[in-house]
Amino acid sequence: MKICDLTQFYSPVSGGVKRYVSEKVRYIREQTERDEHVLIIPGERDEVIASDRARVYTVKSPLISRTSRYRVLLRLEAVEAILMRECPDLIESGDPYQVAWKAVYSGTALRIPVVGFYHSHFPEAYVRTARKYCGPLVTEMFMDFSRRYIRNLYNRFERTLVPSPALGDLLASWGVRNLAHTDLGVHTAVFHPKAFPDEDVRAEFGIPRDRTLLLYVGRLAQEKNTQTLFAAFRELTARHPQRFHLFVVGDGLQRAELLALQHDTSAVTWLDYCAEAPRLATLYRGADLFVHPGVQETFGLVTLEAQACGTPVIGIRGSYMDRIIHSDQTLWARENSPAALATAIEQMSCEDLSKTGARASRRVAAQYSWTQIFVRMFSLYGEVVRNYAPRS
């Protein structure tokens, strides 16, 4: 079977979607004999890079963010030319904008089944902005438009993959049919709690050994709620000077806020990106506590990776991410506020973090290896291909 992933949510410094695709390619190479993979993404130039049973096509596209390095794929005729050349057995669309519509129309024209992966619950960010600036009437109008848009687009796919049952229930209530739940996973040979002898994150970055080391990995953006994390850390350092240190891996539009926090507290270490999974695993293992402030995550892959490495997670209750937290959430913040998150971190840091992290690591390893995830996913792909009835 030849599978083609088509997405705009991909850049040299992107996170979850890029990891998902790269792990799918690894699974094809290591666990299958004849399957192939094609990836179509926006890039700096038109290019194709071929390797063992995998090809990556980049379509020259304009840059829309210098921090995230995301590009907008506008040359849709180039996408169709690649699909015609490759003739995949199945197309998977990974974003909800113009590329998704192109996947649907090209799939119909070429008689190729198309599935959509609902990676991001994008209406949340827009609704929050509308609520803040436009009031309840405009907010409700936008929500109505979002529901109709999502229903109209995703009902055109043979299946809509969702990484959370609760998110699937929401989309079903909006009228989306053919939903299929699939978890994301972890590369358990890389993300595990056993540290290597030369690993010493504190010594490498000059972090005092008497500090509780907090770690955040992800974009610095409104939709990731990093402003709440930064404000919570300010409050923590005011309550307990010299007790906590924050390590941030990621970049984005809130970089200035992070740099101000670093300057004001002298207790922040920042890496704009970490490309290598083993290096990221070292950072997870080096932290005492992983902090995830997100309230609109569809899955929360970094929280799974942190737990796989034996590092417990603290955050804000009530997101789709709650179901993959494999430790007690009693101490998690119950509201999205800096004070609540600061208190949650403060209280969690007093627990036996090693014991909590070890328990979570065992559970993640048992349930979320990428091999388990892709065995189920490829079975679904096969079912879609076998049952596909081209629309006239």
Automatic annotation (TrEMBL):
Occurrences of domain Glycosyl transferase family (ranges): 199-348
Keyword Transferase recorded: yes
KW Phosphoprotein (keyword) present: no
UniProt GO MF annotations: glycosyltransferase activity
Domain Glycosyltransferase subfamily 4-like N-terminal residues, every copy: 15-178
InterPro entries (alphabetical): Glyco_trans_1, Glyco_trans_4-like_N, Glycosyltransferase_grp1
Pfam family, one: Glycos_transf_1
Keyword annotations from UniProtKB, A to Z: Transferase
PANTHER family: SULFOQUINOVOSYL TRANSFERASE SQD2
Name under which the protein is recorded: Glycosyl transferase group 1
